[in-house]
């Protein structure tokens, strides 16, 4: 019933209304009541009221899937709380009933940085999770030696701590949609009354081969972008691949080949017949090809060094080392024993390179920008495996796959963007600018680029200048760190233009950062906060909140390595 004052108002409205208005009100009220009824009548398909979904992500895929799953759960009448593993209160795990974890693997089989605390927590003993009903969706890439390792570990640990699986662990390759969908429906089946928890297998055995598409490209162009006098070598590489499909922001994954000279030395040292064929992943491959193209023989991880020690029956210090050095220090007894060593070697892990071309401007091609990685070991200069391989690439075909990055995308054509990409961080921005140029996008584009010297290290200088002259690039700021006594980096240039930078931010501009994770992206983020504080007249806390909102809205994104 209505309260007395409401009845009075109601009768007042009725008595002052025409017949037409009364009919309209009748329809309006009917509409409201029927929508409410529909809401109340959402069939709750399962007896489960709420679930918690946590995600551990580095590049956003796990978050995307966790959020999609929550939306589906909601449609089934289940309240789903979604939370990053970084923010998840670890003590709550003991109180959970239905708990889902979506987690990717990064580095060399490690959890994403934001999931590390959660990962370490479930690896502790001394607590019991026997009330927990859980399942894990593991994201990874089958090209890595430790496929979905972090997800496997979390699944196993939750089980060890007493948790019960409501659906088996699902491992996904980089084309994860179908497998994730399969996991979603497994969970819903389980929540909808199929309570055969004890019978849940620990893992779904993938029935179909991965849909990840491998391309073989032909080398078109291979030039060192650095000029004489530079301390660096950065290669611009163009590869033709007719049917290649990608979007600006994506990378390619390549499996590098080992140096032939090193393979020859290994063969000479072990006296193995290089042409002997070995069964490897359902194909027959010669020893030479295995060592040259498939197996990792440099900077072996400790777990492989340990296994090496077991085969040669020696106590070997557990530190990363090249196979050739191991063979010199702890030789194998004969060729037969080396065959045992071959069995413990892992596949070469892929390396990713940001695509520097644009599908609109460079159809049928993929361009990359590769810095030759060099470092010193005991005063000897050594080079990174993949970047050295790419630096000496010649006419042979290059195998690669596309690694999508759905977080790092151009916004709508009329939006403004700020790109901060020193060094090889310029690569995706060459793709962005060329794409916007070809599409005639109306949004403004501001580029910050940095390197050591203007004369020798201004990567893509001519293109950048052309884009500036034709107006595709609205603004360009460069920082050449070693052209003056004090070091000047991109973050200093951002601050120098802080007032205008903040104007762009406040008008809705998107900010992209690409290149070295440390220290560059950390310093750039600090400077962004400083600009918001100083030129946006905000407190430190307000500036952090401002940037958090930008992150949430996808207006501040990083692709750093
Ligand atoms: C999303 C993404 C995009 C990327 N985009 C680009 C890009 O556009 N351009 C680009 O140049 N790079 C890019 N990278 C980095 C690239 O993938 C590689 O990591 C980089 O080229 C180094 O690989 P490498 O095989 O040459 O070096 P690795 O052989 O992997 O060596 C890496 C490091 O390991 C150590 N190391 C290796 N071997 C030894 C040894 N024997 N003894 C002691 N230490 C050793 C050294 O510190 C060395 O620097 C990107 C990375 C990611 C994740
Ligand atoms: C540098 C790097 C290292 C990776 N290492 C592994 C690995 O060791 N094992 C694996 O299965 N996947 C590995 N991956 C693949 C990621 O797990 C995969 O791309 C996943 O979809 C990322 O999900 P996320 O966006 O939620 O982090 C790696 C990816 C990158 C970029």
Descriptive overview:
This protein has 561 residues and is α/β, with parallel strands linked by helices. The protein has five domains: 4-40; 50-199, 3-Layer(aba) Sandwich (Rossmann fold), CATH 3.40.50.360; 214-257 and 350-403, Elongation Factor Tu (Ef-tu), domain 3 (Beta Barrel), CATH 2.40.30; 260-344, NADPH-cytochrome p450 Reductase, Chain A, domain 3; 417-560, Nucleotide-binding domain of ferredoxin-NADP reductase (FNR) module (Rossmann fold, 3-Layer(aba) Sandwich), CATH 3.40.50. 38% of the residues lie in helices and 20% in strands. The protein is built from 19 helices and 21 strands. Strands 1, 2, 3, 4, 5 and 6 form a six-stranded parallel sheet that branches. Residues 37-43 have low confidence and may be disordered. The protein binds flavin-adenine dinucleotide and flavin mononucleotide.
Give the topology.
Blueprint (H helix, E strand, L loop, with lengths): L3 H12 L3 H22 L9 E7 L4 H15 L3 E6 L13 E7 L11 H7 L10 E7 L9 H12 L3 E2 L4 E3 L4 H15 L22 E11 L9 E7 L10 E4 L5 H11 L6 E4 L2 E4 H8 L7 H11 L10 H7 L5 H10 L6 E4 L10 E7 L2 E4 L2 E4 L1 H7 L6 E6 L13 E4 L6 H13 L5 E7 L2 H4 L3 H9 L5 E6 L9 H7 L1 H9 L3 E6 L1 H19 L4 H13 L3 E5 L1
Parallel strand pairs: 1-2, 1-3, 3-4, 4-5, 4-6, 17-18, 17-20, 18-19, 20-21
Antiparallel strand pairs: 7-8, 7-16, 8-13, 9-12, 9-16, 10-11, 14-15
């Amino acid at each position: 019933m209505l309260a007395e004052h409401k009845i009075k108002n109601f009768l007042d409205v009725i008595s002052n209304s025409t017949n037409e208005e009364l009919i309209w009100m009748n329809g309006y009220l009917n509409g409201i009541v029927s929508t409410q009824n529909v809401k109340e009548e959402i069939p709750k398909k399962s007896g489960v009221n709420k679930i918690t979904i946590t995600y551990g992500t580095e590049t956003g895929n796990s978050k995307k899937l966790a959020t999609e799953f929550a939306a589906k759960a909601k449609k089934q009448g289940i309240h789903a709380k979604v939370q990053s593993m970084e923010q998840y209160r670890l003590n709550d795990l003991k109180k959970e009933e239905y708990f889902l974890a979506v987690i990717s693997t990064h580095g060399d089989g490690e959890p994403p940085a934001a999931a590390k605390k959660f990962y370490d927590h479930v690896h502790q003993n001394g607590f019991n999770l026997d009330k927990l009903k859980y399942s894990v969706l593991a994201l990874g890439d089958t090209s890595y030696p430790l496929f979905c390792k972090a997800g496997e570990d979390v699944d196993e640990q939750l089980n060890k701590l007493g948790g019960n699986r409501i659906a088996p662990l699902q491992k996904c390759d980089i084309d994860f949609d179908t497998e994730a969908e399969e996991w979603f429906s497994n969970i819903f089946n389980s929540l909808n009354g199929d309570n055969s928890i004890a019978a849940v297998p620990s893992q779904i055995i993938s029935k179909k081969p991965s849909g990840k598409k491998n391309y073989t490209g032909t080398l078109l162009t291979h030039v060192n972008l650095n000029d004489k006098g530079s301390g660096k070598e950065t290669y611009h590489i163009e590869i033709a691949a007719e049917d290649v499909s990608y979007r600006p922001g994506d990378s390619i994954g390549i499996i590098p080949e080992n140096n032939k000279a090193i393979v020859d030395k290994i063969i000479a040292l072990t006296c193995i017949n290089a042409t002997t064929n070995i069964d490897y992943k359902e194909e027959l491959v010669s020893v030479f090809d295995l060592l040259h193209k498939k197996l990792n023989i440099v900077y072996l991880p400790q777990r492989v060094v340990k296994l090496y020690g077991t085969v040669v029956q020696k106590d070997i210090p557990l530190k990363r080392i090249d196979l050739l050095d191991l063979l010199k220090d702890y030789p194998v007894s004969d060729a037969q024993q080396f065959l045992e060593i071959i069995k413990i070697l892992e596949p070469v892990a892929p390396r990713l390179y940001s695509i520097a071309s644009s599908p609109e401007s460079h159809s049928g091609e993929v361009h990359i920008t590769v810095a030759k990685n060099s470092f010193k070991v005991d005063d000897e200069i050594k080079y990174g495996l993949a970047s050295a391989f790419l630096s000496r690439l010649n006419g042979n075909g290059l195998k690669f796959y596309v690694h999508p990055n759905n977080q790092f995308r151009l916004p709508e054509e009329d939006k403004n963007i700020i790109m901060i990409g020193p060094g090889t961080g310029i690569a995706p921005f060459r793709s962005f600018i060329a794409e916007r140029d070809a599409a005639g996008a109306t949004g403004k584009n501001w580029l910050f680029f940095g390197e050591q010297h203007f004369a020798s290290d201004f990567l893509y200088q001519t293109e950048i200048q052309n884009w500036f002259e034709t107006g595709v690039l609205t603004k360009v700021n460069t920082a050449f760190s070693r052209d003056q006594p004090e070091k000047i980096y991109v973050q200093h240039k951002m601050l120098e233009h802080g007032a205008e930078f903040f104007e762009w931010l406040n008008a809705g501009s998107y900010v992209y950062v690409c290149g070295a994770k440390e220290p560059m992206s950390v310093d750039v983020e600090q400077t962004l906060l400083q600009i918001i504080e100083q030129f946006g007249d905000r407190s430190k806390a307000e500036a952090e909140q401002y940037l958090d909102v930008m992150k949430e809205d996808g207006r501040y994104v990083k692709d750093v390595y």
